[in-house]
Amino acid sequence: MEAKLIQRLEAAVARLETLSAGGISERGLPEIGVDVASDPSILAFDDLMAEYAARVSAAAEKIGGQVLDVTKLVLDAFSVQKKLLIEIKQTQKPDMAGLVEFLKPLNEVILKVNAMTEGRRSDFFNHLKGAGDSLSALAWIAYTGKDCGMSMPIAHVEESWQMAEFYNNKVLVEYRNKDQNHVEWAKALKELYLPGLRDYVKSHYPLGPVWSASGKKASSAPPKAPPPGAPAPPPPPPASLFSSEPSQPSSSQPKQGMSAVFQEISSGNVSSGLKKVTADMKTKNRADRTGVVSASEKETRSSSSSFSKAGPPKLELQMGRKWAVENQIGRKNLVIDDCDAKQSVYIYGCKDSVLQIQGKVNNITIDKCTKMGVVFKDVVAACEVVNCNGVEVQCQGSAPTISVDNTSGCQLYLSKDSLGASITTAKSSEINVLVPTGPDDDWGEHSLPQQYIHAFKDGQFETTPVSHSGA
Fold first, then answer.
1. Of 13, 113, 194, 296, which is the most exposed, with the fewest CB atoms less than 10 Å away?
2. What is the CA radius of gyration of the chain?
3. 402/421 Cα distance (integer angstroms)
4. 352 C-beta neighbours (distance < 10 Å), count
5. Burial class (CB in 10 A: 0-12, 13-18, 19+), 7
6. Biased composition, Basic and acidic residues: where in the chain (predicted)?
C-alpha cells in the first residue's frame, strides 16, 4: 500500500514539474500544489477509476464501435470531474453564474454523449442512452446547499442512476443469451456509479464539495456583444444540465384548466372580456354561410377534430390529488418528484416516452399508451395498465397489485420487494415478467400464459394454461 502511494506521489510530482514549465494548468489556472494532488479525496478518486472505470473500459474494448466511443466519453467526464475537484480546493465558492462557467467543461462532455443518441436510432441505442443518462449523476458536484434545488449528493447519485438503469436493464435482457461482453459492460457501468461513485461521495463529500475560503475567485464569462451589422443571435438552446436558473417544480406551475375558470368566476368579472353580438354577425343573417359544405371545409373540420382528440401535452397536479400526464410524445426525461402516498398518477395517450415517479403514490394508471416506459418506487394500492401497446413498467420498491387489461406487449420489471405482488391479466398478450435471480441479481424472464384449455370434468369446467414443448 505504501509503495503504491509513493508511486502516485512521484507521478503527481512529475506532472506538476511538466505543468510548471508553462506556469499554468490545463484550464489556464495557476498550477496545482503538491498538497492538493496528494489530498486523500483526490487519491480516492484515482482508486475509483482504477477499480471500476477500468472494468467498463475493458468490456467496451471487446465490443468496439459506438459502445467504445460512448464509454470513452463517460471516462472523459470522470476525468474532468477529478480536475474540477482539484480546482475546487483552490477556488472560492462562486455565484450561480460563476458556477455554470466553472462546470462548463463537464457539461460539454455530457452534451457530446447526449448528441450520440440523437438522429437515426442506433442498434446500440440502449447502451448510448444508459450511458448518457448516467452522467447526470456527476452533477452532484454542483450541490451548494439545501436551497439550491438539488437532492443531497448521495441521493442525487442514486436518483440519477435510476433513470439510466431503465436502459441498462434493456441491455442486460437483450444480450443475456447472446453476448456476455454486453452483459459485462452493463454490469460494470452500474458498479461505476453504485457502489463506486456513491460510496466515494459518501466518504468524502456527503454535504457537497468544499470550496476554498482563501483561494482564487472563479471567473464568470461576460456575454460577448455582436459586431456592428451582424445578424441577430439565434434563440437560446434548451437548458443544459447546469442551468443557472433553478428548475420549477411541476406543482408550482400556474393554474390551468378548470382551476383557472373557477378563479375567474370567483373574481366576479366574468363578462368583462365578452364582445356584443350584432345582427350582421348572426349566422342566419350572414351571406357567406350556405347549407352546402365544400370538400376543403370537410377536410379542415376533420383535421381540427383529430387534433382536439389528442390534446396538448400535460404534466400537472390537479386539485392536489391527481397527477395528469397526457399526450407526451418522444419525451424521455419526464419526472414526478413532489408526490405523496395520497396522490394518484394517471398516464394517458403518451407515446415513445419515459416517466419516472420518485416517491410513494397511491395508485398508477397507464391508459392508451404506446412504447411507454414507467419507473416507480412504491405504490400503495395498484399499478394498472389498460389499452396499451408495447409498454415497460419497472417497480423499484413494492406494489401489492399489478393489473394488465386489453394490452398487447407489456414488460414488467419487479424488484425483490415486489416479488409478492398479485398480477392480474385479462384480454392481453405478450406479457413478460422479469425478476432478479442469482447472487448477481441477473434478470430472469417469465412469460405469462395467454392461451388456456377449458375441459368439462365432473360437472364443471377446469381451466389450465397451454404448455408448449419444443424439440
1. 296
2. 28
3. 7
4. 15
5. exposed
6. 277-289
